[in-house]
Amino acid sequence: MRTTFTIVGVLALTVVAPRAEAQTGSRVKLGAAFGPGWETRGAGGPSGTHFALSATLRPATSLFSYRLETMLDATEQARQRPVSMTDIRRHATFALTVSAVRRFSKNPVGLYVMGGIGLYHQWNEQILNDDQPETESQRGVWSNARAGLNAGVGYSFHLRGQEMFVESRYHTSGFQPGIPLSIRILI
């Protein structure tokens, strides 16, 4: 699952990148992002894949911009349990967020902070599988939708004429126990 989302993210960036140079002067910027989630429990480290599409409104005379974004975050963990059991946990979050972005200069390159609200739909699946051939796997699926808040920090830069940025945001719903780290390109 993680490989699929990574491939989709790379393909999206490959398709949209050539158009970015021709539209750098527009006030509404479309963007695509992908990257890993970062585990916040236990030892920490990368877990899962994050993919997002966004539209950002940037008024020319303001340090603020506003972003509408749809995101997908997916993880899968398998661990061996005592007595020859395997525990597989899958989690996916679909989100729609609206955020305000505050830059520290009118130059589009540099540090910024952001925060906003969103609607997060979580889907979870757990499979317990015993290695004994006579036992059947146990499967549980559950989902929910909740409102939540997000806040984060990022840095924008130009690479080969393309406006890109790296950012990380904490979400109060949906992405727990991880924090998505995104690499994004604007077109």
Averaging pLDDT over every residue, what do you get?
Answer: 77
* Rg (CA only): 19 Å
The helix/strand class is mainly beta
Question: Which regions contain 5 or more consecutive residues with pLDDT less than 50?
Answer: 13-25
Number-wise, the strands total: 8
Helix proportion: 10-25%
Report what the structure shows.
This protein has one helix and eight strands, in the order H-E-E-E-E-E-E-E-E. With 187 residues, it is mostly beta strands. The longest helix is centred in the N-terminal third of the chain and has 19 residues, at 2-20. It is elongated, with a radius of gyration of 19 Å. The two termini are 27 Å apart.
Task: Write the topology of this structure.
Layout: H1 2-20, E1 28-39, E2 45-57, E3 64-81, E4 85-103, E5 110-130, E6 138-159, E7 162-171, E8 178-186
